[in-house]
What does this fold into?
Amino acid sequence: MFRVHPIISQAYQKAHKITINEKSKLIFMSDIHKGDNSYADDFRNNMKIYHHALEHYLKQEFTYIELGDGIELWENKSFKPIYKTYKNTFELLKQFNRKKRLYLIWGNHDMEFRDPIFVEQILLNFFTPQNIAVKEELFDLKYYESILLNIEGTNKNIFALHGHQADYMNYKHWKFNRFFVRHFWKYMQRHFGIKDPTSPAKNYRELIKVERKLCDWIVKNNQQMIICGHTHRPRFPAAGDIPLFNDGSCVHPKSIIGIEIKNLEIALIKWHLELKSDHPKIIKTILEGPVPLKMYL
It folds into this structure.
């Protein structure tokens, strides 16, 4: 268990720091797994819900923090079909970036984005700037391993990361796992419905193991509050419990789940289709909270 502790601690020490206060409005989402609109693209059925939610948060001046696995680069060798499928969504993310309200974290399924040269190549190929001002705006885009949200006027903070740092194989040997997913399990899923055993989201034993390791690190590090993704399992502890939060994923059946922070209060939310009338509409439901952050810090 303890061999992952130095990995998590290193991510904490190197985390990108952001200051927040009572005026800050944040939405955390992860595990979008945007693919190529094929049978293996788990996100395609939630595309409209996700896009609707992003438009809402952009209009309401939220800061969007993506906690990893935003793009599915295990099942897809190229970014091109993903961009073509979800071009409108990427345009929305560009608007968040233009307003300096976009923070991206890489996970195990988009680990390539930890390389700034890889990010620059993507930007050059698919977001060609028309002038110097646009280039400076676009090329300011960075991916982080982790983020530390410092509460203004206090010594309290929230540690945000994808969570695969507590999943040794998916962190240290992600290329090995990617090979099997890309060349083997993808086709087993298609023809036989066999779930990917490398993913904690589809392997309950691994899911529990990841959560246990993160909780153990929190206890040994002065009850440091964490918000993560990776397991796809929403988690919202009661005040007084180990402060490990998980924002779920965007590939739940006909719904996406995330975490909001507003007025220094935290809530678990779900965007989904309401089918009570002849005209289905996308609505937001609060699943847990809001609870003051001070109850966990």
Notes: The chain has one domain: 2-295.
